[in-house]
Amino acid sequence: MSRKQVFKTSQNGGDLLAHEIENILRRTSRRLSRLLEKGAEEIKDKAVDFAPKDTGALEDSISLKKNSRAGVNGRNTFSVFVDGEAERSDGRKVGEYAHHAHYSNEARGAGTVAKGEQAGPMFMERALDDVKPRLEKRAKDIVKEELR
Asked: What's the alpha-carbon Rg for the chain, to the nearest Å?
């Protein structure tokens, strides 16, 4: 639709400008929701990469949940979290280890060292910090594209 058409009214008196704005909002919302879901998946993957490794249970417990219509104005939200109720091979809950591993400044164990320099404490925050700038840039790009 050309810009000239946007400002004309239709035969039945409907406002084409309002209709076009609604279409832009729907398209933008769908694209941003897909972006957030992909971003949450990327954050989860990064958190797994960044997590310390002992038995592997911590990595396995890092989860992604889509909360449909739970956000502001009924928008989809996505949660990346450690399932603290998951059990390690020794029967303890992952949550006990996860909290310690996340905030600990202790020397890195053999499993963590084997994963590389990126693995260690503050793995959830570092995963978010790694992905967030790209998500923000892409979100701005989507809005700009839809407003053209």
From this structure: 22
Instruction: Count the helices and strands in the chain (H runs, E runs).
Output: 6, 2
Distance CA 80, CA 5 (A): 44
- Rounded Cα distance between 17 and 101, Å, is 54
At which residue do the structure tokens 């892409």 appear? 138
> What is d(CA 32, CA 100) in angstroms, rounded to the nearest whole number?
35
Q: Please, which residues bridge with residue 82 across strands?
A: 62
User: Which residues are paired to 12 by β-bridges?
Assistant: none
Residue type, 6: V
The answer to whether 82 and 58 are in contact (CB under 8 A) is yes
Give the pLDDT of the chain (148 residues) as one tens digit per residue.
454 454 455 554 457 777 888 888 888 888 998 999 999 999 999 999 999 998 899 999 999 998 876 656 667 789 999 998 998 888 888 988 888 888 888 888 899 999 999 999 999 999 999 999 999 999 999 998 888 8
